[in-house]
Structures are given as C-alpha cells and as structure tokens.
Amino acid sequence: MSNPEIAQICHSIYKKHQQALDIIFQYKGDKEYEVSQIVQESIASIPDLVLDAAGRTIIRFTTSELDKLIPRVGTGNGGALKEYSCLNLKILAKG
C-alpha cells in the first residue's frame, strides 16, 4: 500500500470512529510520564538528593552536599523554577 492509500484508510477509519478513538487516545498510557514519576519518586526517597526540575522527558537534580557548597542562582527559566543549581545531574529520556 502506498502512503496516500494508507492516509485515506486512516482518515476513513477516524471519520467513522472518531469518538471512540479520541477516548482511547485520551486515556492511553503515557510511558514517558510513568517513568518520570518513578524516577522522581526514587529521587525524593533518597535523602541526599535534591530535585531541581522535572518534566516528562527531563529530570534535573543535585545532591544536598553540592547544594550547600554551590549556591543556587538566577531566576530560573521564567516558569515554575525560580532558582536552580549551577551544577546538577540530568536524566534525559530519548525516544
């Protein structure tokens, strides 16, 4: 099958079953979110780790010792992160 044929079939299926497909997409599992939550909970459970910022695909954290030695700086990125550590560890999810 060529791409235009596949596109037409997908369009036809979506048109016939739009409501059901929208509900499926709304409630389908989000693996990146689930993994991010597990990593954030793990970081929170280790007393020596300090979470700096987290999202679905990136988590920044430091240690409490580094946090004491190196002052936090800046006003962050203008979002929820008001201060941030100059030196942090980063977990980046690549799909």
Mean pLDDT: 81
Radius of gyration: 21 Å
Largest sheet: 3 strands, antiparallel
Global morphology: elongated
DSSP strand count = 3
Strand content: 15-25%
Order of helices and strands: HHEEHE
For the biggest β-sheet, the strand order reads 1-2-3
Helices, by number, come to: 3
Approximate helicity band:
40-55%
Structural class: alpha+beta
Q: Termini separation (Å)?
A: 27 Å
Structural features, described:
This protein is of the alpha+beta class and 95 residues long. The chain has a domain at 31-92. Helices cover 48% and strands 17% of the residues. It contains three helices and three strands; from the N terminus they run ααββαβ. Strands 1-2-3 form a three-stranded antiparallel β-sheet. The chain is elongated and about 60 Å long.
Keywords:
95 residues, alpha+beta, 3 helices, 3 strands, 48% helix, 17% strand, elongated
Brief description of this entry?
This protein is an alpha+beta fold and 95 residues long. The protein has helices at residues 3-27, 31-45, 64-69; strands at residues 49-54, 58-63, 89-92.
Question: What's the layout of helices and strands?
Answer:
Layout: H1 3-27, H2 31-45, E1 49-54, E2 58-63, H3 64-69, E3 89-92
Antiparallel strand pairs: 1-2, 2-3
